[in-house]
Design goal:
The protein has about 375 residues and is an alpha/beta fold. Helices cover about 40% and strands about 10% of the residues. The structure holds iron/sulfur cluster.
């Protein structure tokens, strides 16, 4: 049966997606101009058709914070901005393992090791590189988790070492469209980011790469970013929403992105990337009310970065599971078969404490954004 939302543009796109066709930029631009309700319906249909009804939960550790030489305008960890965040060197393999163990207990399927800098360099910082590799080995040995690395720009040699070490996924967000990128980042190019993703893919890693919404980009930029990610080929598409940090270039007052725009963009991304995990990541707590957080999941998102790493005001992993359930879905248990009820009960009993390597909410940390 052909599913119909009653909107001809959406129904035509939906029919083609369900038939296995890939939507292009023209389709994306037509879709993002449509009303939100039928887009949400279509996004849910695509998710149900291509997915397994689960939401994949991941967690990250910010294993080195601050003092990054790059100038990404949204990022509290850049040396170009005075944000007063706590900075620290690589926390060490044991501390990474501690964070991974906690993530596993909280129901994460994937665990991301994030290092805030242009690139962890085997050549220029061999000691830090060796520690990262040792941390990966420990997590691989001790935990049932897929491991994601977010280590910045990579060489081919480094990518091969990561694959041999057991890294399944590489995170490197493109942030926004190729056109809008220079308005946000001055010290490196969009193409630098694409090159690293290509290097990681060539070495055998799946790609986790996405965007930050609400940085002043247009709906066209949102579509162009999704099309760029289609060309790169990603299996996980994190959707961050800017949480403006005072002191950063984008920490100033700006028109807020609306809930409708966030939900609509998620639905369009679902249709343009039917087989990727569209993952809600940083900034959702800051931009969506508690009773709105399930809406992007209803629109087709099927991944979630759980907020247990935040030191204040963060949601517990149990609250995140409740959001998943409110959307009529259930958490993925493919890699880590955990007990949802125990996680929820723990969240009610224990205050949210900072995880090792946790920092205050920043767009870059929440997205694993190096
Ligand atoms: S997003 Fe990553 S590369 Fe950019 S300033 Fe922040 S830590 Fe550095």
């Amino acid at each position: 049966m052909v599913y119909e939302t009653g909107n001809r543009t959406i129904d035509d796109a939906l029919e083609r997606v369900l038939a296995g066709e890939t939507l292009d930029r023209t389709d994306g631009l037509a879709l993002i101009a449509q009303p939100v309700e039928p887009l949400v319906e279509a996004g849910a249909v695509v998710r149900d058709h291509f997915g397994d009804g689960t939401v994949d939960v991941c967690s990250i550790v910010n294993a080195k914070a601050g003092d990054c030489a790059e100038d990404c305008g949204f990022c509290a960890q850049s040396v170009h901005f005075d944000t007063g965040i706590e900075t620290y060197d690589f926390i060490g393999p044991e501390a990474v393992l501690e964070a991974a163990t906690r993530a596993e207990a909280d129901g994460a399927q994937r665990f991301g090791i994030v290092v805030a800098e242009r690139g962890v360099s085997k050549e220029h910082r061999p000691e830090e590189w060796d520690e990262v590799i040792e941390a990966i080995r420990l997590v691989r040995e001790e935990c049932d988790l897929e491991i994601d690395a977010s280590l910045g720009i990579l060489t081919e040699e480094e990518a091969e070492i990561l694959v041999e070490g057991g890294i399944n996924h590489y995170n490197h967000n493109i942030e926004t469209s190729p056109n809008y990128f220079p308005a946000v980042v001055g010290t490196h190019d969009f193409e630098d980011r694409v090159r690293t993703l290509e290097v990681a893919k060539e070495a055998g890693m799946d790609l986790c790469a996405g965007v930050i919404l609400g940085m002043g980009e247009s709906p066209t930029d949102r579509v162009d970013a999704a099309i760029a990610l289609q060309e790169i080929g990603v299996s996980s598409l994190p959707v961050n929403v800017l949480n403006p940090i005072a002191g950063t270039e984008l920490g100033v007052e700006r028109p807020e992105i609306t809930t409708g725009e966030i939900v609509k963009t998620v639905a369009v991304y679902r249709l343009v990337h039917p087989e990727a995990r569209v993952r809600l990541t940083g900034g959702r707590e800051a931009n969506l009310a508690p009773d709105e957080q399930h809406l992007p999941l209803e629109a087709g998102a099927d991944g979630l970065l759980t907020g247990n790493y935040l030191s204040t005001e963060g949601q517990t992993p149990g609250e995140d599971i409740e959001i998943v359930e409110r959307a009529g879905l259930e958490p993925n248990r493919e890699v880590n078969d955990f007990d949802s009820e125990a996680v929820k009960a723990r969240g009610r009993e224990e205050p949210v404490e900072p995880a090792v390597g946790s920092v205050e909410s920043t767009a870059s940390v929440e997205s694993g954004d190096d």
